[in-house]
Amino acid sequence: MSIEVLREKVISAAEAFFRLKTELHPPFIAGKTYIPASGKTLDFEDLKYLINSSLDLWLTAGPYTKKFENQFAAFLGGKIPALFVNSGSSANLLAITSLVKAA
């Protein structure tokens, strides 16, 4: 069995798991259903990228990160580079630092 066939089997099994798990969620009832402060908003496409990265052992920044940085910089007009960071706090520190350095 080739590595790509095996990769597809892993992703297919994960998709079946994801679909089944999502179907098992009880329906939302206003005023009764608990809503966590930081709920997950990921879909299967996100999970697929996570699995592909993990299978390639890209557990930190990797090819998807570089693609995102390039596309985001282009979205902003391509005049400034985009830099992916690990958290909102790091993003805020980077933004403030860039403003201080620019002044």
Molecular structure report:
The chain is mostly helical. It folds into two domains: 1-58, no CATH class; 60-103, no CATH class. Helix content is 59%, strand content 0%. The chain has helices at residues 3-23, 44-55, 63-75, 88-102. Helix 1 (3-23) packs antiparallel against helix 2 (44-55). The protein is flat.
N- to C-terminal separation? Answer: 58 Å
What's the Cα radius of gyration? 19 Å
Percent of residues in beta strands:
under 5%
Helical coverage, percent range: 55-70%
Order of helices and strands: HHHH
Overall SS class = mainly alpha
Mean pLDDT value: 88
How many strands, what sense, and barrel or not for the largest sheet? none
What characteristic shape results from the CA principal axes? flat
Give start-end ranges of low-pLDDT stretches: none
Q: Say how many strands there are.
A: 0
Instruction: Give the helix tally.
Output: 4
Count of separate structural domains: 2
